[in-house]
Amino acid sequence: MKMLRAALLATALSLPLVAGAYAATPADALVIAQNIDDIVALDPAQAYEFTSGEINTNVYDRLVGYEAEDTTVLAPGLASEWVADDAAKTITFTLRDATFASGNPVRPEDVVFSFNRVITLNLTPAFILTQLGWTPENMADMVSIADGKVVVTYEGDFSSAFVLNVLASRPASIVDEVLVTENAVGEDLGNAWLNTHSAGSGPFVMSDYRPAEIVRLTANETYFRGAPAMKTIIIRHVAEAATQQLLLTSGDVDIAKNLTPDQIASLPADTVKVETFPQAAVHFLSFNQKTESLTPPAVWEAARYLVDYDGMTETFLKGQMEKHQAFWPKGFPGSYDETPFTYDVEKAKQILADAGVETPINVTLDVINSTPFTDIAQSLQAGFAEAGINFEILPGTGAQVITKYRERTHQAMLLYWGPDFMDPHSNAKAFAYNSDNSDATYTATTTWRNAWAVPQELNDKVTAALAEPDQAKRNEDYIEIQKEAQASSPIVIMFQAALTIAMANNVDGYVNGATSDFVYYRLVTKE
C-alpha cells in the first residue's frame, strides 16, 4: 500500500507532507481517486463513455450549454446570443470574443469545421447531430457563415428547442481547426491525436492522459469566464474502493468518487464531508435477442419479477441508487415514476410455465468488474436461479464490457445508460426505437445493441412524440411510451443512480449535475 501511495504522489504531483503521516495536496491542485477504465475515446467526435464526457465538458465549450452555475438552465456558451426561425428551420448564432487554449481565436470557421468533422468521421456519437438531417453531402448548406455569424439549418419535425438541446451535447463541442489540422494523420481529421490531447477553449487543457492510469488537466488561463482557481486537476485511476478510502482519509487525494455505502458511513467527519448528487443514469439488465433462449416475451416478463429491487436498494445500494423502472429518469419532465414490479419468484415461475418456456436457461451475464456492479450481478444470479435462469457472470473492465455490447456479442448484459442530451427523446430513441435491426447498420441504442426489432407501432409513437409541438402533450406521449416499453421489452430497467461523493472538508464549489456531461471543476476552491 505504501508503494501505491508513493506511485500516486510521484505521478500526480510532489505533495508536501504535514505533521505525522498525513499528506496534504497543494492549495491550487485537486486530486481525485476514480475508476476511469471505461474510457474508450476522448475525441468529442468519438467519446461516448461517462468519464469521457466529464473530461470533454471541462476542456471544450459548445455554442450553448448547461453550465456549472445552474445545470438546469440552457445558457450561452461560445455563442453570446442566437435567433431561432422555426418556420425556416434555422438558428443564427453570434459568437463571443473568445480564444482557444492554444491562443488561436474562436472563429465561425471553427464551428463549421467541428460540426463537419463529426459528420465526416461518423463515429459513435455522430447520430446525435445527424438526426438534424445533416449528411456529408449537405453540410455546406446546413452549417454556414453569414455576416460573421454561424447559421445552423436543420431538417425534421421538431422545434428549435430540441435543436438547441442537441447543440448542447458532447459531439457539438467546438475544436480548434488550426491545431487539429496540424496534428491530423492522413484522413483522420486529428482523431488519433485528440484521443490523447485536447484542442478546446474550455477552462482546462488535457495535458496528460495515460489509459487506466491518470488524466491531468491544466488550467486555461485565458478562459473567457475567468481562469479556474485550481491550476491542476489530477484524476487518478483507482479501481478499488478500499484504496480510494485510504487515499482520501490519509489526505493523499481530495475526492473519492467510488466508495461503498459502508465506507461512506465510516469516514471521519472532522476531515471528510459527503455530498449526494441525483443522477440521470438508469441501470438495467438486458437480453440479446440473438440468443434464442432469451427471445420469448415471457422471459422478459418473468425477469421483471426476479430482481430484488428493495433488497438491493435497502442494503448495498443504499445511497447509491433508488428503485426506478422506466427509461426516463425521475425528476425530469416526461418521467414515468410508477414501479409496478416487485421480487416475486412464484409469479415469475408461473409466467414461464404458462408460456411453455423450458428451464433451466443457462446464460452468460457481462458486468463491469467493480462495485456496485459485481454486487448487483451476484444478487441477480441468486434471484434468477430460483426460477431456473442461471447466470454465469463474466466480469470485465468498463471498456471491455461496453465494446462487447456495441458488437452485440453478449447474451445478457448489466449496464447503465445516461441521456445524450437533456430531452426525453434521447432515452426514448435508446430504449423504445429501432427502425433497422440489421447487423450492418450500427446504432448507438440499447435496442439495436440487444438486437430487439422494436414493433413498428412503438417506433411510430417515438417519432410522433418528437414532433409534438405542445410540450405538455409531448410529456404525456413519452409517459405512454415508457409504460409500453416497461411492460414488454427485453430491457429490464431497475434503478436510477444517486452519486455519493466523499471529499476533503476544505473542498468547495464542486459541481456534479445529473449526467457526466455536467461535472465541473472550474468553480472548485480549497480553503
Structural features, described:
- It holds the Pfam family SBP_bac_5.
- Belongs to the bacterial solute-binding protein 5 family.
- Residues 75-438 form the Solute-binding protein family domain.
- This is Peptide ABC transporter substrate-binding protein.
- Keywords: Signal.
- With 527 residues, the protein is α+β, with helices and mostly antiparallel strands.
- The protein folds into three domains: 2-35 and 203-271 and 505-526, Periplasmic binding protein-like II (D-Maltodextrin-Binding Protein, domain 2, 3-Layer(aba) Sandwich); 58-194, Dipeptide-binding Protein, Domain 1 (Dipeptide-binding Protein, domain 1), CATH 3.90.76; 278-499, Dipeptide-binding Protein, domain 3.
- It contains 19 helices and 21 strands.
- It has helices at residues 2-12, 50-59, 108-121, 127-130, 139-142, 160-167, 177-182, 191-194, 241-249, 261-265, 297-303, 309-313, 345-354, 373-385, 398-406, 424-432, 446-449, 456-467, 471-487, and strands spanning 29-34, 64-66, 74-76, 79-85, 90-95, 143-146, 149-153, 204-210, 214-219, 232-237, 255-256, 272-287, 321-323, 361-368, 389-396, 412-417, 491-504, 507-508, 511-512, 519-520, 525-526.
- Strands 1, 8, 9, 10, 11, 12, 13, 14, 15, 16 and 17 form an eleven-stranded mixed β-sheet that branches. The protein has a four-stranded antiparallel β-sheet with strand order 4-5-7-6. It has a two-stranded antiparallel sheet with strand order 2-3.
- A hairpin with a 6-residue loop joins β19 (511-512) and β20.
- α11 (297-303) runs antiparallel to α13 (345-354), α16 runs antiparallel to α18 (456-467) and α16 packs parallel to α19 (471-487).
- The longest helix is centred in the C-terminal third of the chain and has 17 residues, at 471-487.
- It is globular.
